[in-house]
Each structure stands twice: as C-alpha cells, then as structure tokens.
Amino acid sequence: MSFSNMLKAVLFLLSIPTVLSHPSPQHETWTALASITVAPRQEHTAFFLQPSTIGILGGVVPNGTWFATTDLMQFYSIRDDSWRTATLIPKPLNHVNAVTSRGKLYVLGGLADTPEGNWAAIPDAWVYNQRKNSWTAIAPMPVGEARGSAAVGVYKNLIILAGGITLLNVTGDGSEITVDTVSIFDTSAGKWVEVPEAAKTIPEGRDHAGAAVVGDKMYILGGRKEGKEHVQDTVFILDICDMAAGWTISSARMPTARGGLSTGVIENKIYTFGGEGNQNLESGVFNETEVYDPIKDSWERLGSMEVPRHGTSAVAVGDAVYIPGGGIRAGGGPVSTFDVFRPGAKHPCKERTRQ
C-alpha cells in the first residue's frame, strides 16, 4: 500500500464516530457468586428463607449417562457467600412447584421419574419447618390437578398455581402435556380451596412460564405450550381481589417470546431472564434480560445475561435478583454457575417496547 493510500485509510478510520468503539455503558450489573456445590443443577426451584438464605431443591443432576432427578436441598448464605447441604426433600422431584409463604417453605407437587424414564406429575405436598429442619406431609393436590412446572404466586395466605405440565417425555420425542388449570392452597387453613369459576383456567395452557405477584395481581409471563419449540410472548393477569372477573391478557407482549425463563420483582417491576426455545442459536438458549412495568403496561430491554441459562428460577432479595444454576443448552446442560443481577440506575436511552 502506498503512503498516500495508507494515509487515506487512517483518516477514514479516524472519521468513524467514536460511539462504535465506545458503546453506551450498561448500568445493570452481574456479579459471580460461589458456585453450587455437590453437582451442577437444572430444573430445580429456588426460594428465599429469612433472614439471608437462598435455597434450591430438586431438579436434575448429571449421572454419567443422562440426568438423574434429585432430592437434594441446599442453602446459600448471602452473608457468607457459601453453600451447605440441608435435609433432603421427601421425594426426588424436578420442575417442583415450591415457594415460601409466611416463613415456611411449601412443595406442592412436581415431576417424578417413571419406570419408563420419563417425568410424570405427582400430587404429593409437604411443608418445611426451618426451625425444626423437617418436612411434614400436607393435603395433596386435588384429584386431576397434579402437575409440575406451574407458574406459582403468593398473595397473603394464598399460594396460586397456574398452568404446568403433567407429563414430559424425555426418553422419546420430548413431547409434553400442558394444562391450563389453576389451583389455590390456603396456608392458613392448610387446605386446597375452590377457585372461582372465571379464574379456574388461564386463557391458554402454559408451562415453563415466568410468574410474579405485584400488588393485588398475579402475572404469568411467556412460557410455552406442548413443547420447548412453542414459545409464547403473552402476559396473563389475574386480579386476586376480584377473581370472579377472571384472567385478562395484556396488550403489551413480551419483546422476546420464550419459555423456561426466570423472573424476579424489584420495586414493583418484573425482571425476566434467559429461557429456552431460541431457534436462532445452536444452544437454543436465550440471553435476554427484559423488564415489565405493570403500572405502565410496558416492556424495556436490558443488557444480555452474563451466562445465558434456562431451567432455573430466580429469587429477588432487596435490589438484587439471584439466579442459581440452570442449563446452558436446550434440553440439557446443567451448570453450577450462580450469579446476582442488579438493575442499577435507570438509563434514559434504553429501548422501550409497547404494543
């Protein structure tokens, strides 16, 4: 190259706007925490126990040939950044419907191994007493309503389960049976209660959906129906104080349709992370982080996940969302990765979407 041509090339490069080499900073942050001990994990459920414990239970772990459903329960100390193994859950389960309510941990069904090697729903339910470090059997799920991978929300003394799957064929074609059932467990009465007719089913079957309760309303975000390739972008809403009005569908669709996502609520906004069913990537996993504002009924795109995953659940504590484990490939790929997301200061130029 001649000197004159080289000079022209240099001048051209200098003329390119600096924004290309200096992208806008992301105000949200991801911080790596102590990795999950014992074994990598996915299809487990995460929860919070006072005063500063993140827990995970059930799920699947590698067994050398495929994945084994586990009865492991582990506790992570936010204060010490360390893990310890707790008492086992009563049965090995994956896609567990588990949540804490008023200081107690409830397991309300899930999927268990079948003799054929598939995963099928069981109705068994238990409550965990943290002080006694023990499980007690409680009323099983109503007849015909057993399922795993339900969207779970807590409102006062009520635990609401919406949608889910009754069977996941993991030895064959990966097909699954998705349901639209809604069930409610009253922790004060210790029993399952009748759901008002208009709220007994969600608008369409969903499993592997995100869920959150903000104010008096429950939100079901995305998910899938009859298989990981059938991802959805809907937001179903139930006014818990007026269940007779039934479920509604938000006009604000998710920017990215996905199932197997995780959700956490910070300052009344619902943050959604990752997921499964991405047809554009070989991994099949989404790296999107998007936040829904129920008041404005609008979505906002944030930066990508540091480690894209599906098949886990998130726990919001204060101004942070903790995401333990998950899968880095569609179907399988459990990891021990554990990180925490903080949204940081609001950025005035973030992209907004509203439909």
Q: Give me the CATH fold name.
A: Neuraminidase
Largest sheet: 8 strands, antiparallel
Q: Please give the CATH class.
A: Mainly Beta
* Inertia-based shape: globular
Task: Examine the secondary-structure arrangement and name the CATH architecture.
Answer: 6 Propeller
Rounded to an integer in angstroms, the radius of gyration calculated over CA atoms is 21 Å
The total strand number stands at: 27
H/E order of the elements?
HEEEEEEEEEEEEEEEEEEEEEEEEEEE
| Low-confidence spans | 1-25, 347-355
What is the SS-derived class?
mainly beta
The average pLDDT is 91
Q: Give the helix tally.
A: 1
Oligomer: single chain
Number of domains: 1
User: CATH homologous superfamily name?
Assistant: Kelch-type beta propeller
Organism: Clohesyomyces aquaticus
Protein name: Kelch repeat-containing protein
InterPro entries: Gal_Oxase/kelch_b-propeller, Kelch-typ_b-propeller, Kelch_1
Keywords: Signal
What does this structure look like?
The protein has 355 residues and is mostly beta strands. It has one domain: Neuraminidase (6 Propeller), CATH 2.120.10. It has one helix at 3-15; strands spanning 29-32, 45-49, 53-57, 60-62, 67-69, 73-77, 82-85, 98-101, 104-113, 119-129, 134-138, 151-155, 158-168, 176-186, 191-193, 210-214, 217-221, 235-239, 247-249, 262-266, 269-273, 289-293, 298-301, 315-317, 320-324, 338-342, 352-353. Mean pLDDT is 91; it is low at 1-25 and 347-355. InterPro entries: Gal_Oxase/kelch_b-propeller, Kelch-typ_b-propeller, Kelch_1. Keywords: Signal. This is Kelch repeat-containing protein. It comes from Clohesyomyces aquaticus.
